Amino acid sequence: MAITRIMLLQLFLTATTFAQVILASSDPTFTLPKFTSSDKYFGQSDPDIKVDKVNVTDNFGLESKFTWKDVIDSLSDKEKLFFIQRHGEGWHNVAPSNFSSDDWNCYWMEQPGRDGVIWEDAELTPNGIQQIENLAKQVNDTENLPWPEKFYVSPLRRTLQTWELTWKVLNEEKNVDQAPLVKEFARETYGIDSESKRHNKTYITENYPFATFEANFTELDELWKPDARERSQHRKYRAAQLLSDIFDDAGDAKVISIVTHSGLIGSLLDVVGHRSYPMATGSLIPVIIHRKPKKTKTYTMDKPDKTYSDVCPNPPSSISGAPSDYTTIAE
């Protein structure tokens, strides 16, 4: 029965959007393959090493008693080494510091930007660009680092920029011809705030011509809504579906790169049983992920999307800097 539900869901996903699948289903449970992760090789994964004591500057956390060859040689045919990368600092990361929390949550985060600073589908700040250039240098300088065989990226601008400044540059230097596959499910938590709304496919194609798209990637953003926000249980399911898709698409490839966002990274780590590990903008974590061939996990999605009143429970009577005739989404 579980396999049948998986097959039906995957077929349904080719014809409609994720949100529509969830809303249309009378059964709020969905079953996917079970994933686990190894805690053997990397400090980030080792429960005996405190998070703030992990040496991320040396071999991206690879413990000194191991080599990258040890890691690759250890991988079974059901395992892959993932380089999970968070985008560099974007304008949406710095903009909230200019507002009170009420002003931001109840008005400004729903706007495209202010005073020439655009945080809708935000691009990288100059600091974010520098973060990624530094990371690319670290990648390039890490001796014997296994090179990704498959690349995946979120459709938002900050992740596409990050991939371009990291892997496009390094691939060209190494004469490697590899393009990233844009995956809709690799995006950040979506809805209400403008930073989580992606541009259309035509815009992405014109501005990031290196990108390729998964099948059925829609022209318009059909997930983002101005009055509904994805909940964490939805995002966790989406992370598991993304992993399943990547394992299927990557085939025998052992080393996978994915450029994504902090919220989705948290869900990915949770899905594979990795300990919680905070990631700063412009950072990368290596994780060995195992897809269990005969085990499944059930995800329950019985909660409705968050509404504007969830993110702004007490709208203020006035918003600093807003037009005098401003209204809240709730109104």
UniProtKB/TrEMBL annotation:
Annotated SMART domains: PGAM
Family annotation (InterPro entries): His_Pase_superF_clade-1, His_PPase_superfam, PGM_Phosphatase
Alphabetic keyword roster: Signal
Keyword Magnesium: no
Stretches the record annotates as Disordered: 296-331
Keyword Lipoprotein on entry: no
Compositional bias (Polar residues): 317-331
One annotated Gene Ontology cellular component of this protein: cytoplasm
CDD domains: HP_PGM_like (cd07067)
Name by which UniProt lists this protein: Phosphomutase, putative
Signal peptide: 1-19
Source organism, top-level taxon: Eukaryota
Molecular function via GO: phosphatase activity
Lineage: Eukaryota, Fungi, Dikarya, Ascomycota, Saccharomycotina
